[in-house]
Amino acid sequence: xxxxxxxxxxxxxxxxxxxxxxxxxxxxxxxxxxxxxxxxxxxxxxxxxxxxxxxxxxxxxxxxxxxxxxxxxxxxxxxxxxxxxxxxxxxxxxxxxxxxxxxxxxxxxxxxxxxxxxxxxxxxxxxxxxxxxxxxxxxxxxxxxxxxxxxxxxxxxxxxxxxxxxxxxxxxx
Length: 173
What we know:
The chain is an alpha/beta fold. The protein has helices spanning 2-15, 48-60, 99-106, 121-129, 158-172; strands spanning 35-41, 64-71, 83-86, 111-114, 134-138, 148-150. A six-stranded parallel beta sheet has the order 3-2-1-4-5-6, with helices on both faces.
């Protein structure tokens, strides 16, 4: 009963963020994108290296890149090299309540990239609520909240997903 109530509240909050118009990339060229937000499930450390390498490559190209990791655990993780929040920063309706998540949502990124292929409800909410101009996510997400969705099928791995995002940007140019 309580889980059902949480889901109802979550869906109610999420509905107000459905996109009705396709957003356009700034100047329609990847080279003109200045700010990128990347949100991901940080619970498993196995993907941290790939994500940090992706961030560094984007920064080397002169872009402002902000990472937001979500640790799906009750105890606070140790020090990290990226912004994060954990279960303590999630409200009853499975939406973020932490200041770091709220600031990330409010930041007007040129592009937001969701690297969570597992459709975590809190991460999906962040993507839906984000003020980003263009939103990219996995094909497993809600199509109402993304401008571009990438499908790797059943064989998802972080490295190939990031590579596919880069290839897609190159095709857009």
